[in-house]
Design a protein that fits this description.
Layout: H1 2-65, H2 71-89, H3 95-100, H4 103-117, H5 120-145, H6 149-153
Helix pairs in contact: 1-2, 1-5, 2-4, 4-5
Length: 163
Amino acid sequence: MTHEYFALIGTALGILGSLAVLFVGQRMSRSWQREQWILDRRIEEFRELLTALAEAFAVAMKLHAEVVIESERLREFMNGHANALRVIRSRIFIVEEVAQFNIELRWAEAGARYQRTLDVPHFATVFNEMRIQIVGAARITQAYIHRPSYKRIFKHKDSTRAQ
């Protein structure tokens, strides 16, 4: 009877161990999928932010290229600028970076100065500085996605993580 008892306990422990491994594996997989989804959204938001700023910048350059500023062109600039501000304010997954880079205030000030003075070099400098920061932050996010699996599984601290 003791051999049967030990065999039964061994079988039960084997079944419980298998279930535990399946449970842990499923939890790790779900955790990684969620993390991957969030990182994908971050990259998407960086792309949308940069696109909105680039579109507003392109409208400003088109406006500057014209000798006479038409009210329709000025309205087009203001619409592009307002759209960029809307995109800046609607970020969810990259809100910390948007605040850290002070994008909203810098863009609003650059747009207001451009509207008053048509100072293209200053507007271009602000746009380029912000573009470099946004692309850099997006690349850090991309590097975080491609880190080795043991670092993802055990949430290993990594220097490629956004600071």
